[in-house]
Every structure is written in structure tokens, then in C-alpha cells.
Amino acid sequence: MKKFLFATVALAAASAALAQQYPSKPVTIIVPFSAGGPTDKVARDLAEALRGPLKSTIVIENVAGAGGTLGAAKVAKAAPDGHTLLLHHIGMATSPALYRNLTFKPVEDFEYLGLVNEVPMTIVGKPGLPANNWAELQKWLQANQGKVNLAHAGLGAASHLCGLLFQQSLKMEMTTVPYKGTGPAMTDLMGGQVDLMCDQTTNTSAQIASGKVKAYAVTTLKPLATPALSKLPTLDASGLKGFNVTIWHGLYAPKGTPKAVVDQVNAALKTALKDPGFIKREEELGAVVTADARVNPAEHKKFVEGEIAKWTPVIKAAGQYAD
User: What domains are defined for the chain?
Assistant: First the structure.
């Protein structure tokens, strides 16, 4: 018993000492996607807001590939000292169902640090679509069953996931058309080569405002305040009860990172999320900065566990997997 107590006290003392020394070198935030994309932009904005409260140089490292799983796996295997962090999106919840040979476990292999933001999504259609509102779109979909095609930006992309849930909620199968990214998918939608797409406001707001695509609904439970989107109904209020899809980002550390360090990073994150400059930059992206209990590690983890439970049956029912 004395040995156990001694070991516990020694561990607590070592953790406290590490926290006092932390950070002892630059902190690296790994982004599991290419530079220039939405997640990379969020990471760089967050790094700018974190430098002050964390009192450290912060380096962004892009480790792209395999739908974000390569970068996440690298962090899972990194030294658990708080100097290597992960900024990841909804892929933390969908990768267990999408990838059969996943080399990490999202729930078990990370310390959760807090949810950063959420990005709403919109249902948009080609400019020549005869439907001008959600009610008319529903009638058009019913009249054209088996003929409708739905674009997405690739397996596991936000538009792919939203499209799967959209079809299941409508109890209607559409011909899905995969693209290598949002750019070419949006180009073909604006050109009328595909009928519909569900994508993030960061990718659709400008096209909606300019009239280059038609907008029908938003995927959040509450209407959006953005001027170009404020008149759009929610899918939940339009008959698809419970439909709620956002693309969120969270911050993580390798499993085993001392609690004192986790607490220190979490405190810095909470300060960063209140930074007016960060909030403004995120609003410009169409994102909503987290301001609820999910900024706490336990609630962040609980939220992701709920997202895993939500998306796993959707993905498995569609039978769409990556190796």
C-alpha cells in the first residue's frame, strides 16, 4: 500500500513538474489535410490565437493523406508531452466506420482538449433546377426518383457524409457523383452537370449570394443569421426531424499526456476561443466558435462519442468504405 501511495505521489509530482516546464519547445499542431483547405485555415487561425495564452511558438505541420487518418495516426504515436497536438474535423467520428484498417482508435488513443468550432451546411442545386424552394424541391425529387444525381467531394468528405444522411432521411436513393475535391464538384453544379450537393457554408455562401446556385435549406437545428442564408428553412423544421449536420473541429493530444499539461492547453484554448480576432476570422469562414460545455475535455469526448454513434450506422448502411 505504501509503495502504491509513493508511486502515486511521485507520478503527481512529475506531472506537476512537467506542467511547470511546459511548453519547453515549440508546439506543433498537425493538420491531417493539405495546406490551404478549410481545416488548415482553422488551424492557422487558432495557432495565432493560442500563441499568447500558451506562451509558445506554434508550428503548423500538414500531414495529408488517407482522408486525414495519416496525420491523426502520427499524433496518436507521438510523445505524450503536449508538444504535438492534432486539429481534426468530423473525420475523428467517421473514420472508424469508413476505414477498415484504421491504425488508431479515436476514443482510446487521444486526450481530448476541447471543441473549437462548427460549420453549418446547406442543400444547394444547379441554377437550372425548376424548384425554387424546399417544398418545390421535395415535389421535384418525388417526381424524378431514380434520375437525381448528387455531387460530393470524395469519400469521407463533408459533402459525402451529408449526402448519405440526406438520402436516408428522405428514404430515397440518388446517383452519387464523386469528385476530387469541392472545387470541381461546385464547378459542375454551377454548370448544371449535376443536380444537387450538400456542402459547408464556407464553400457555398458566395455562390448562393451571387445566384450561381440555388439554395433550399440548412442542416442545423436553428436558422442561420448570415444575411445570404437567413431565409432558408432548416431540414429539421421542414419534415426531416432531427436532421443536424455540422462540420466541427476539435483539438487533441496523444493518450497519456499528463493531466496538468492537458489542463494547461485547455485553459489556453478557452482563452483563444474568446479572442475577438479569432471569432471574426471564423465568422468570415461561416463557422461558429464553440462557446458551450464542449470546450471542456470530458464534454468534447462525450460529443465525439455521440457523433461516432450517429455516423457509424449511416456509413455502414450505405456500404461505402475505404481500404
Answer: 2-119+247-318 (3.40.190.150), 121-218 (3.40.190.10)
